[in-house]
Amino acid sequence: MIKEKGILFVLSGPSGVGKGTVRKALFEQDTNLKYSISMTTRNKREGEQDGVDYFFRSHDEFKEMIEQNRLLEYAEYVGNYYGTPRQYVEEMIEAGHDVFLEIEVQGAMQVKQNFPEGVFVFLIPPSLEELKNRIQDRGTESEELITSRLQEARKEIEMMESYDYVVVNDDVDNAVKKVQAIVQGEHCKKDRVAKQFKALLEVEK
């Protein structure tokens, strides 16, 4: 029997497009998916567990991992580092699980450089007007910040050429169905199946 490996799927897109909503809805329907657990240097909050919410590491340990290229991407935010550990992703894929990484555009480009065999999915809004409405509906950001986010979104949308697939998030259920179709399609790709079948033939010799 073919031992099917998992695939790393990177779900990305501009702020406010609904990446988290789509990813959560997707996970409610597919139990084989694994969410990529991030690593951080920030202190553990009450109720959080190492290896469940985050992998908690010291600044020195994190910097050592950067130097050893053991992170698929990382960024510094308010004095703490956050990143995606390569080992966790590779172990889940080897075990046959599809790993989903929900991330902003700059981080996705880092992952593409470090893990080009991943599948990169870009989530876009039906229009910039709709994106503006979604950000405004949050009710948490000033008009100035909303304008800044929309300007950044324009630049990020121009980067969709770097992705393998583009999904319009006009409706969460529709977007989830499209992502599921991408997952199924990727597992049926000739090159991927042929590689796994050849490995099986080697074992059976």
Mass-distribution shape: globular
Decide which structural class fits the backbone.
alpha/beta
Low-confidence stretches: none
Q: How many distinct helices? A: 8
Q: Report on the biggest sheet.
A: 5 strands, parallel
Elements, N to C (H/E): EHEEEHEEHEHEHHEHH
Distance between the amino and carboxyl termini: 14 Å
Helix content: 40-55%
| Total number of strands | 9
CATH topology of one domain: Rossmann fold
Mean pLDDT: 89
> What percentage of the residues does DSSP assign to strands (E)?
15-25%
Cα Rg: 18 Å
Q: Based on the coordinates given, report the CATH architecture of one domain.
A: 3-Layer(aba) Sandwich
The strand order across the widest sheet is 2-7-1-8-9
CATH class of one domain equals Alpha Beta
Write the CATH homologous superfamily of one domain. Answer: P-loop containing nucleotide triphosphate hydrolases
